[in-house]
Design brief:
109 residues; mainly beta; four-stranded antiparallel sheet; elongated
């Protein structure tokens, strides 16, 4: 499992979208794409935000909101855990896009 800490600074309730380019770690062997699945978890304790998704679910954008809570200055973590070990030596890749934006539609708590 790999973990990446991050900070969020926002003075409004926020929304987050997450998506994956390949839906897993892509390895190419003799022109054939092999996709290794992983689980991605997003956690921001003070917002009580705990979201976990399988990499295949991230091909379509996943939307998460702060349920009206204003984060101001918060710490969080993003964790990636492989479902299985990697079968081949070499280069695996995926692109995870994360967008954080103020949510004007949330009711403030």
């Amino acid at each position: 499992m790999q973990s990446l800490p991050f900070n969020v600074y926002c003075n409004r309730p926020l929304g987050i979208t997450i998506n994956s380019k390949y839906g897993g770690l892509k390895y190419q062997q003799q022109g054939v794409d092999i996709i290794e699945s992983y689980n991605l978890s997003l956690q921001i304790d003070d917002l009580r935000l705990y979201e976990s998704r399988h990499s295949s679910q991230l091909i379509s954008s996943v939307m998460i909101d702060s349920s009206g809570v204003i984060p101001f200055s918060q710490q969080g973590s993003l964790k990636v855990a492989l479902e299985n070990g990697l079968h081949f030596a070499g280069y695996y890749q995926d692109v995870i896009e994360i967008e954080v934006y103020p949510s004007i539609h949330s009711a403030t708590k």
